[in-house]
Design a protein that fits this description.
With 285 residues, the chain is mainly α. It is built from eleven helices and two strands. The radius of gyration is 19 Å and the shape is globular.
Length: 285
């Protein structure tokens, strides 16, 4: 029973981190119509940069401030050089972002090596929780993910730039006619998506392995969360990510993790058979 509780709690924590990453994927798809095959590698870049900051400075907390800023800057450059020329071409976006994924992976491998690394959590204490000695850092990771997700929604609904993003997403022609700089909105949106994924990488760094292929396993999970949550529904993406991760965590206490992932895919298929547009269909306005 303790194993089920521990894996279930780990699933919720991991689901909140995945929700943070998947939100970035969802806004890129919802606003730019880009099927971003490289999004898992944005997460991977975040974990590697966090490891590099810690290895260089010895202070992991700096990574929480530095890496999202670097991610935003890298995302802006990628949007300008790779995404902008193929805007409104979904087929080309798959090819371009697949190539971007390979470039990011091979660049990290060539720069930092192919040997996986482990990061020590900046908080090593444990606390009694539901009869278990649970890691404080995992609780911190969950709270930080919740705070980041909450800040994103506040930004989306309470700032002028967030209003511009929602307007361009709803009706780009009218938004442009009203003077909203759609070109700038597209760049900022992609950059925010990269920053959110890289922040997820920083949060997950001490929990997972730092590896140039770390994004390969993250990407399908993010897509599952976006699809089950309803394409374009940001709140649905968050709910679906937590639900899927909790489901996998509990299943992993009874079966092999590979079978648990197969179970998640079966759950997604069952949901789509009943609700083809996802559980929470409809775009966030």
């Amino acid at each position: 029973m303790e194993l089920v509780i521990a894996l279930g709690m780990n699933g919720i924590v991991w689901g909140l981190i995945i929700a943070l990453i998947a939100l970035g994927l969802s806004i890129i798809f919802g606003l730019l119509d880009i099927i971003n095959i490289a999004h898992g590698d944005f997460f991977m870049v975040g974990t590697v940069l966090a490891w590099f900051v810690f290895d260089t400075t010895g202070n992991y907390w700096l990574a929480f401030a530095i890496v999202p800023i670097l991610g935003f800057a890298i995302g802006a450059v990628i949007e300008y050089t790779v995404i902008q020329p193929i805007k409104n071409a979904a087929a080309l976006s798959i090819v371009a972002t697949f190539g971007l994924s390979i470039i990011l992976q091979e660049s990290v491998r060539a720069t930092f090596g192919a040997t996986p690394a482990r990061l020590t959590a900046p908080i090593e204490e444990t606390v009694p929780l539901f009869g278990l000695e649970y890691e404080v850092y995992r609780l911190f990771a969950a709270l930080l993910s919740i705070a980041a997700i909450g800040c994103f929604f506040l930004f989306l609904h309470r700032t002028k730039l967030g209003t511009w993003m929602r307007a361009v997403r709803f009706d780009p022609e009218t938004a442009t006619a009203m003077g909203i700089p759609a070109r700038r909105v597209y760049m900022v949106t992609f950059a925010i998506g990269f920053a959110m994924a890289s922040l997820g990488g920083v949060v997950a760094g001490p929990i997972t392995t730092v590896d140039f292929q770390a994004g390969v396993d993250i990407l399908p999970f993010c897509f599952m969360a976006v699809i089950i949550g309803g394409l374009g529904n940001l709140e649905g993406t968050v709910a679906a990510a937590v639900m899927l991760a909790f489901f996998e965590g509990v299943m992993a206490s009874f079966v092999d993790p590979t079978l648990a992932r197969i179970g998640s895919l079966c759950l997604m298929s069952a949901v789509l058979l009943v609700r083809p547009h996802g559980i929470f269909s409809g775009s966030t306005r």
